[in-house]
Amino acid sequence: MSLLGKIFSRGPKPVIAKSRYVSIEDVKATAFTKKRAGAGLSTKPETYYIVASVELGNTTTKCILTATNLETSKTYLLDKTVKMTRDIRPPKPGENVFGETVWEVELTKESVSEMVRDTILESVKRSKIDIDKDLDFVVRSTGVTAGFASPKEVGDLIIALADGCLDAGIPPSKMAPAMSKESFPERLRDYTLIEKVMFDGAVVSVLPPTGKAVVANEMEGELVTAGIKVGAKWTNIDFRNPCVSMDFGTTLAGRITNGQEPYARTIGNFCGLAGAVSDSIIRGTEKVDKRGGAALDLYSRDILKKADWKAAEEYAERAHDYIDIRKVPENRDRFGTVPVDPKAAYDAGTTLIGCDVGKNGDKIPKLTDLGHEIYAESGIHTLFATLDYVSANIVKRLGDEAFEEGVIEPGSMLGVTGRAGITGRKPEFVLDYSKDKFSGTIFVSDALAMGAAVMARCMNSMGTPHIPIGGKQGGACILGQRRKMQKQKGMID
């Protein structure tokens, strides 16, 4: 490389798939007036599949409306409405508190339903969609189960989410898969393969670890893995199996898949704390709520401009003195506060790799004290730079542990999503670690919502064989293999 090349080159740049927006007016106009270009022009109109992702998280509650072009498999955002979960109203007299978030925000069926209803209605109003005419499907998910103690509490939360959707005017038929081709609106019938193949639980050609949940937020890992695959369609990266996904929400979610066909196996799961680590440090500034405050409360685009990066790296090393990353021991029923079942996981051949702060978060106050020290000595800019190094080092340690356990296949892709994984210089630092260990690395915004969009399609057998999302890197659509397998099992004729 020339001298000038060395001066101006900083190596490969992170590939970041950012969400792209489209309006409902454009979606409707496209359906009737625009033509798509392929080998020449086609008179076949583009058709969009509109899905609402309703997410109740430990830090944020969201309704994200997506529109997927069923010709190109590209997913757009119609609206993204975000509320802070800490703003869920307190329990009223007579209401039963069935659980709480990681940050000890108490939840009742009524308060959760109201928050979900209001978030959906705000999103619908902003996007100008008609629930009855425009919305095709709703997928509900939650990471709050990390703070729960029993399956009954989880069940109560799922009911509360459903009630919130119903209270917003969403009919039950839009929350369950169709039973036949005639169940679909006429505009979608040409896009479903429901008469050729059935939904058997595999989402984007990946089977869950076992019939029994091995981590409380298993669905989040499933959705973000699918969402990263969809987000990759905006880039030149073929993020298909084998792959590794990491979601840095408040809690950690993600999967490690192998390269089997037609369905990959989930051979590894991530669990524990992620964004909660950054939130714990930021609370040392005393500029955010001590219980529900988050790093995103203070984040801004120019927050890193005056950072002392050398000092930040040293502070991050000190933070990692309290962070425990390892294969989850078989005798633990929680890791990083998240309920886990290591025995069921290991019996099914799935390795659990967790991130904790002390034991089940008992060293979180130490991180808050460190945050106070950083803020007092070096200011807010260096504090946020520290968070970039902290998250990047979590990715590195998770990856190193997985490689040591032998659960990452050669040629695997790495995908990272979540608020504490893709902001600031985190992608740059993660890429520096991953570039020699993975075939490619991608960072995707809103992967959980993207995953909800593709899960809705999988549940309704709405694939795009000409642009496959499932299967192996570089491979063709696996529809034929699926049909052959399902016929052998007597699932289809």
Entry summary:
This protein is about 35% helix and about 20% strand.
Q: Measured on Cα atoms, how large is the radius of gyration?
A: 22 Å
- C-alpha geometry: globular
Low-confidence stretches: 1-9
Our measurement of the CA-to-CA distance between the termini, rounded to an integer number of angstroms, reads: 60 Å
Oligomer: single chain
Described by strand count, sense and barrel closure, the largest sheet is: 5 strands, mixed
Q: What proportion of the residues is helical, as a percent range? A: 25-40%
Number of strands: 20
Counted by DSSP, the helix tally is: 12
- Arithmetic mean pLDDT: 92
Major sheet strand order: 1-20-19-11-12
Strand % is 15-25%
In terms of structural class, how would the helical and strand content be classed? Answer: alpha/beta
Can you walk through the features of this model?
It comes from Methanobacterium veterum. By secondary structure, the protein is an alpha/beta fold. The protein is 33% helix and 20% strand. It has helices spanning 3-8, 24-33, 109-127, 151-167, 218-231, 275-282, 309-319, 342-347, 364-404, 426-434, 447-459, 479-488; strands at residues 15-17, 36-38, 40-42, 48-56, 60-69, 75-84, 97-100, 106-108, 137-142, 206-207, 243-248, 252-253, 255-257, 264-272, 323-327, 334-335, 338-339, 351-357, 413-417, 440-444. Strands 1-20-19-11-12 form a 5-stranded mixed beta sheet, with helices on both faces. Strands 10, 13, 14, 15 and 18 form a 5-stranded mixed beta sheet that branches. It has a 4-stranded mixed beta sheet with strand order 6-5-4-9, sandwiched between helices. A hairpin with a 1-residue loop joins strand 2 and strand 3 (40-42).
